[in-house]
Amino acid sequence: MSAQKSRRRIAMVSEHASPLALLGGVDAGGQNVAVAELSAALAAQGHEVVVYTRRDDTDLLDRVDTEHGYTVVHVPAGPPRKLPKDDLLQYMPAFGDFLAEQWEQWRPDVAHAHFWMSGLATLRAARRRGVPVVQTFHALGVVKRRHQGRDDTSPDERIRLETELARKVDWVAATCTDEVAELRRMGRDQSAMSVVPCGVNPTEFCHIGPAATRGKPQRIVSVGRLVPRKGFETVIRAMPQLPTAELVIVGGPDKSELDSDAEAQRLNAVAGQCGVADRVHLYGAIARDEMPMLLRSADVVAATPWYEPFGIVPLEAMACGVPVVASAVGGMLDTVVDEGTGRLVPPRDPRRCADAITPILADRNLRAALGRAGRARVQQRYSWQRVAEETAAVYDRMAGSVS
Ligand code: UDP
Asked: What pTM did the predictor assign?
């Protein structure tokens, strides 16, 4: 598509995940990045993009015009303070009513909802204003429940409401092939669904540039929100088999608050039990602009979640020319090529994780070859520019005027 031919008005709806938020906290990660980067790339292609996210702080302005060419509107729905995302369902009617009001003045050509609760609010407004809805789930309640069982704190109604939503929206942009299969099982018509992955900015995340200093000759890096399902425990339990390496875990609260974080305490205890506490370092959250330098300091990035709707970190590592050892689940089945850009291993299996990492640490040439292939793959398929073009093609279809 050409931006000049069809400049669209796009409403991005992301109830809990603001593109302006700091990352690393329990509810701030890939969705924030995806909404920010996709909005910026679409704006750069000439589209008018407004992101609607919940006002979670009284200090926020009603409207922020970002330097990246898109606007963020802070939606008054529920108390203006940080709340766990699992408490937000009750505020979605108010969120939807606010959107409907806004769209009376500024009617978007398409609304793109991120996460199921955004979908509910978006549909409520869109049906009133005749706006087509594209839905990206970023995560599915059925998958979460399957893996987390009673630890899943999602609202009880999630699976029912999400299933209804999946059947009602005009288009589903799934983030990976595996999710398409899940959605089909939920009753989604496959003819109005496609895979639109998340992406990475290959200029920002690049193999060339400074690298953070290491404490040991070899370094494994793992990045993500500090929650059990991210599987940091698996890599820690692999460490006794990897005696020359250190493991750096990035994510969670700021380093100053790490000592009081329950998951950080649990992971440190596991490291102690495994006798590797001196080689496992929890860094807490780091700023986005420090991430490429940190990733470049790794010989291998380990991404070993129990399940993963997409997984942006593996792409960021690949863009930095670093091999990735990833769980063979979800989005990583699409992004990571086993023996090509890294290794795919079964989740929750420390021995297989260590077996996959060992040869990569041992062989500089193998590392370089996997890293080069990873970077090439990202450049070819996963730049946000390309993802934005694919997304805009979906919008064109929805707006009914493919030019
Ligand atoms: N991230 C970050 N700082 C941190 C931890 C994570 O900037 O301390 C970023 C990371 O680089 C990636 C995103 O947060 O861009 C995490 O996305 P991913 O899809 O891997 O995981 P999710 O949070 O969606 O489960």
From this structure: 0.94
